[in-house]
Design goal:
Blueprint: H1 7-10, H2 21-33, H3 41-45, H4 47-63, E1 106-108, H5 113-122, E2 128-130, H6 131-146, H7 157-173, E3 177-179, H8 184-194, E4 197-199, H9 201-212, H10 219-234, H11 245-260, H12 271-281, H13 302-306, H14 317-323, E5 331-336, H15 342-356, E6 360-364, H16 371-380, E7 387-390, E8 402-406, H17 408-411, H18 415-424, E9 429-434, H19 447-450, E10 454-460, E11 463-466, E12 474-477
Parallel strand pairs: 1-4, 5-9, 5-10, 6-7, 6-8, 8-9
Antiparallel strand pairs: 2-3, 10-11, 11-12
Helix pairs in contact: 2-4, 5-7, 5-8, 6-7, 9-10, 9-11, 9-12, 10-11
C-alpha cells in the first residue's frame, strides 16, 4: 500500500513511464510539492494538497497492485479462463531498433534572449537552489523584459510567462534551499525549444579572443586559448564548414604573433576588425542584408529598414522623461556651474542604472573617494552591488556597462581621448561630466558636444534640461 510514510522507498519501484497520463501528472505533482520527496510539510499542513495526493495514492494502488519488486511495470490486467493452462510465453529476441538521429540544430551567431532564459530554467531541474539563486534569476528575467529584450510578441511568450510565474511561486514558498523540479511534460516542451538552435562552434573561441584584446598580463591565457583552438580543430568541433572558421583562424594567427613577440604587452587589432567581430558575437551580423560582416549596408531599401528592430535600454519614469530611451551604447555629457547639482544628478542616475540595467563604474576624480562622495551616495540612497566607485579611470573597464567620468576636465581627457575610449569599448555607455566657465559654458572643445547622443545642462540649481537626440526639451528636478 502506497502512503506518505513509505512513498520515498516505494516510488523507486514504480515504472513512471508506464503509468497513464493522469497518474504521471500526479507523480509530477507529488515530486514538486514535496521538493523531490525531501519535505512533506505541505502535505500535512494543507488539507487540499493532502486530499489531492491521497487520491493519487489510491489510484496508483489500484493500478499497480504489487510494489514488491523493483520497477513494477504498470500493465492492464489480463483475464485468464479458470480452466486454461498458464503457459509462459517464449522470450523473443527483439531486433535492435535503428537509432533515430536528432534533426540538425539551426546554427546561429547568438541565442535569442528568450532561448537563453528557457535554457537557464531547464538547467534548474532537479538541482538544489537557494532563495538567492531563484531571486537572481527572477531579477535577470524581469530586467530582460524591462529592457524589451523579451517582448510580448515573442514566439515563446507563453513559455516565458510560465517560467516567471513558476519562479515566483517557488521563491515565495521556499524557506532556505530546495530542489527545483520541472514537470516532465513541461520539461520536454522546453527542451525541444532550446534544442532547435545552437551557436556556431567558432563563436565561443572568438568571444574568448575578444575578452583578451587590449588587456595586459594575458600571455598565459592567450597560450591556453591557442591550445583550445587547436584541439577544437583536431577533434572536428570547428571545421571549414563553420561559417566563421576563417574569423577564428585570423584570431589564431593574431594570438600566435602576440605569443611569439615578447615585447608585445597587449593584443592590438584595428577598430574595423574589432567592431566586425563584436558584431558577430552580439548577433548583429548583417550579411543577409547584403552588407559587410558586422556592419549595416551602405544603401538599404526603406521598406526593409522600417522593419528592423533596434535595441534600447528601456529607461522608465523620470529618466525616460528626461532622456528618452537611448541604445545600450549611448554617450551623454552633463555640464553646469559648481554647486548646481550635476554630481547629484549623475550619482542618482548611476544608482538607477545599477539597480535596473547593469554594472556601473562612477569615476569621481573631482571629489575622490572621500566623505563628500559618500554623503551624496547616502543622500540619494543609491548604494548597490552593481555600483562601483573609483578615484581614477582603471586601465580595464570591461566588467562595466555604464561608465561615469566626473569630471572629464579633472581627468585631463581630450576629445581624441574620449573617441579612443569609445572605439576601444564600443558596446559600453559613457556619461561625461564637465566643468563650466563663469558664463555657464562647458570647458572644452565644441566637438565634445557634437560627438555625444545626449546633452544635459544644469542651467540653475536643482534643474536639469536635456536637448540631445532622443527627447529634446526633457526636464527634471534634481533634489
Amino acid at each position: 500500500m502506497l502512503t506518505s510514510n513509505n512513498y520515498n522507498e516505494q516510488v523507486a519501484l514504480i515504472d513512471y513511464t508506464a503509468l497513464p497520463s493522469n497518474l504521471q501528472k500526479g507523480y509530477d505533482f507529488v515530486k514538486k510539492s514535496t521538493q523531490n520527496y525531501s519535505n512533506w510539510d505541505v502535505y500535512y499542513k494543507s488539507e487540499k494538497i493532502k486530499e489531492v495526493i491521497d487520491l493519487y495514492f489510491s489510484k496508483v494502488n489500484e493500478y499497480v497492485p504489487k510494489l514488491s519488486t523493483p520497477k513494477v511495470v504498470a500493465t492492464k490486467k489480463e483475464v485468464v479462463h479458470k480452466s486454461a493452462k498458464v503457459v509462459k510465453p517464449k522470450t523473443e529476441k527483439k531486433m535492435a531498433e535503428p537509432k533515430h538521429s536528432e534533426p540538425p540544430a539551426h546554427l546561429v551567431e547568438r541565442l535569442e534572449e528568450e532561448i537563453k532564459i528557457i535554457k537557464r530554467f531547464v538547467n534548474l531541474n532537479e538541482k538544489q537552489k537557494s532563495q538567492e539563486d531563484i531571486l537572481r534569476f527572477i531579477n535577470a528575467l524581469q530586467k530582460a523584459i524591462v529592457e524589451r529584450k523579451i517582448r510580448k510578441t515573442s514566439a515563446y511568450a507563453k513559455e516565458i510567462e510560465y517560467i516567471q510565474k513558476d519562479l515566483i511561486m517557488v521563491y515565495n514558498r521556499m524557506s532556505s534551499k530546495t530542489v527545483y523540479y520541472i514537470p516532465q511534460e513541461k520539461l520536454a516542451n522546453l527542451e525541444s525549444i532550446i534544442g532547435g538552435e545552437k551557436i556556431y562552434p567558432s563563436i565561443q573561441y572568438i568571444k574568448k579572443y575578444l575578452n583578451l584584446v587590449g588587456k595586459t598580463g594575458i600571455k598565459q591565457k592567450a597560450t591556453a586559448l591557442i591550445k583550445l583552438m587547436e584541439s577544437a580543430v583536431a577533434k572536428g568541433k570547428v571545421t571549414s564548414n563553420d561559417k566563421y572558421s576563417d574569423k577564428m583562424n585570423d584570431a589564431f594567427k593574431t594570438l600566435r604573433k602576440f605569443i611569439d613577440n615578447p615585447t608585445e604587452k597587449t593584443i592590438e587589432i584595428d577598430s574595423q576588425e574589432l567592431n566586425g567581430l563584436q558584431g558577430i558575437v552580439d548577433g548583429c551580423n548583417c550579411t543577409s542584408l547584403s552588407g559587410v560582416d558586422g556592419e549595416m549596408p551602405v544603401v538599404m531599401n526603406s521598406m526593409e529598414f522600417a522593419k528592423l528592430e533596434f535595441n534600447t535600454i528601456g529607461l522608465t519614469g523620470k529618466w525616460h522623461n528626461l532622456i528618452g530611451d537611448p541604445s545600450p551604447n549611448f554617450t551623454a555629457m552633463v555640464f553646469g556651474k559648481p554647486k548646481m547639482g550635476k554630481s547629484y544628478l549623475c550619482i542618482d542616475f548611476a544608482g538607477y542604472m545599477a539597480r535596473n540595467h547593469g554594472k556601473v563604474l562612477y569615476v569621481a576624480k573631482e571629489e575622490g573617494l572621500d566623505f563628500t562622495l559618500q554623503k551624496k551616495l547616502n543622500d540619494k540612497d543609491v548604494k548597490h552591488p552593481n555600483l562601483f566607485v573609483a578615484s581614477t579611470l582603471p586601465n580595464d573597464i570591461t566588467p562595466y556597462d555604464f561608465i561615469f567620468l566626473d569630471s572629464v576636465n579633472k581627468l585631463g581627457l581630450l576629445p581624441e581621448d574620449l573617441t579612443a575610449l569609445k572605439r576601444k569599448y564600443p558596446t559600453k555607455s559613457f556619461i561625461y561630466i564637465f566643468q563650466t566657465t563663469k558664463e555657464g559654458n562647458f570647458r572644452g572643445a565644441n566637438s565634445f558636444q557634437h560627438d555625444v547622443d545626449v546633452v544635459i545642462e544644469i542651467p540653475e540649481r536643482g534643474k536639469a534640461v536635456q536637448f540631445g537626440r532622443f527627447n529634446q526639451g526633457g526636464e527634471m528636478g534634481i533634489f
